[in-house]
Design brief:
By secondary structure, this protein is mainly α. Among the domains are: about 30 residues; about 100 residues. Helix content is about 60%, strand content about 0%. Helix 7 packs antiparallel against helix 8. The N and C termini lie far apart (about 100 Å).
């Protein structure tokens, strides 16, 4: 804004902004014209919105609609969890892991022939879901024959158990060099024939 030398600041400001000074032309308001109708003519006034189905907003249908999907999900999830923990599945997983446990035990903490017999007995218990207390060559032969193992493998396993028992009863309970490796080889053959 610039001020001329002959005028004051107030007059210069009045000349610059004509909207500040009221006039007869600016005070007349135009009339509002209606262009069309409302697209939602049902709501012409403020008030509660109506629900077409009262049963969905109150009562037992509301609670079923609210918690039904969640409860169905929980039931399905619980059924799957119980199915995984069923006794049949536990037995199957034990028999699948039996060879792995035997090989791990043979490589780590076998100190003598009696430990090898115990490890093989635990393998048979896990693999065939049994509870054998003591393991003799005759009991082993009956068990393996009932599971469909070939007679050659049954004979080799029986001879192996007899050698281990003889070593234990003779007082020589030290671990033979090849005993654990031989046991793992016999068990691998047994696994192939039992499938």
């Amino acid at each position: 804004m610039s001020v001329l030398p002959d005028t004051t600041q107030e007059l210069a400001a009045a000349k610059k902004s004509p909207s500040l000074t009221p006039s007869a032309e600016t005070s007349v308001k135009k009339e509002i014209q209606q262009i069309g109708n409302d697209i939602l003519p049902n709501h012409m006034s403020a008030g509660d919105l109506s629900v077409p189905y009262r049963a969905l907003s109150k009562g037992w249908l509301f609670w079923i609609a609210l918690f039904g999907p969640f409860s169905i999900y929980l039931m399905l999830w619980g059924g799957i969890k119980l199915g995984r923990r069923s006794p049949d599945r536990i037995r199957q997983s034990r028999s699948k892991n039996a060879f792995r446990k035997l090989s791990k035990r043979c490589r780590q903490d076998i100190t003598g022939c009696s430990d090898l017999i115990d490890a093989f007995r635990e393998y048979l218990n896990s693999r065939f879901n049994l509870s054998i207390g003591t393991l003799t060559p005759d009991e082993t032969a009956k068990l393996l024959r009932s599971k469909g193992v070939s007679t050659d493998t049954i004979q080799q396993i029986g001879e192996y158990i007899q050698r281990l028992e003889n070593a234990v009863y003779a007082g020589d309970d030290t671990k033979p060099a090849d005993a654990a490796i031989e046991l793992l080889g016999l068990v691998k053959r047994l696994e192939k024939e039992c499938r």
